[in-house]
Amino acid sequence: MDNTLEAAKGGDEQAFVRLTAPHRRALHLHCYRLLGSLFDADDALQETMLRAWRGLDRFEPRAPVGAWLYRIATNVCLRVLEQRGRDPARADAHLQPYPDLLLDEIPSPDVGPDAVVESRETVGLAFVAAMQLLPPKQRVVLVLRDVLGWSAREVAELLDDSVAAVNSALQRARERVERPHAGEPLPRPHTPADTDSEAMLMRRWVAAWEAVDAEGMIALLAGDALMTMPPDPRSFAGREEIVHFFATVPEEGRLDRIRLVRTRANRQPALAAYVQNADGGLDAYGVMVFAHQGDVIASITGFAGQPELFTELGLETHLDG
Fold first, then answer.
1. Residue 179's pLDDT is what?
2. Which residues lie closer than 8 Å to 117 by C-beta, 6 or more apart?
3. How far apart are CA 293 and CA 16, in angstroms?
4. What percent of the chain lies above the pLDDT cut of 70?
5. In the CATH hierarchy, which fold is given to the domain comprising 2-178?
6. In the CATH scheme, what is the code of domain 191-319?
7. Is the model's pLDDT at 92 over the cut of 80?
8. In this structure, are residues 191 and 294 in contact, taking their beta carbons and an 8 Å threshold?
9. Omega of the bond prior to 64 within 30 degrees of 0, cis?
10. What is the pLDDT of residue 86?
11. Cα 310–chain centre separation
12. CA 20 to 30 Å from 123, out of 105, 130, 223, 281?
């Protein structure tokens, strides 16, 4: 690593790529947790690499490269959050799904200390959405302390704050994330009964959809199921209200005209929807991410009108009819 670091400090861009490559995917996930947006995370990672390249001559190898990069990425995300300001929109206005394809690219835990960040049940859509309720400082403290495992002193140094202030912010953040989000229609945690039950439930949902079977869909939803469609402020509470939406809005309820393709995001089952166009082909329409509680669907989070998400999920944006 020393030779690579010295070469990078000397202006060798390929050496810099080798130096930072093992950390890039985990850094991208870190930015996503803080910002909630897949594409904002793209921009934040790019800015992080630019700042790291420009500031490499000031890096002292007494600390790991990964920790140094996380400091830069965190500051970049704080700047993004400050620019957003107090957005009057709902808490999940910036929320997007995170493809499992990207999670699979994060190194396994035995590769390095920053590789454990995906293994702590903090990639779920419910957690990321709840994070958007927190002020920037609390958000950063929670992720650095509870996800990355930084000490209170390390976080205090990054934020130029006291250890006591960091501990106080962590306590408030934990309480806010863990308690019910009254008035905030956010995705539910994904807690399926088991892998087989999860797969069976999704097969039954697709079958009911293709048969335009409203009663069948109702039977698969929890009584207090919730559907949201960020950044659209509307939400649909209860299985009857959700199914009424599907029976009247997408293609005026002709769900058999919408083809579903299975995919995954945030370690949860997801379905990509394609709608028929005038030429008979199928165009990207939207993505639904599901949260199960036991053997029923607890929430559906829909992301419509974002065909670029299909590319990130490894899917085509157009299919032949």
1. 77
2. 26, 29, 30, 106, 147, 148
3. 45
4. 93
5. Rna Polymerase Sigma Factor; Chain: A (1.10.1740)
6. 3.10.450.50
7. no
8. yes
9. no
10. 58
11. 15
12. 223
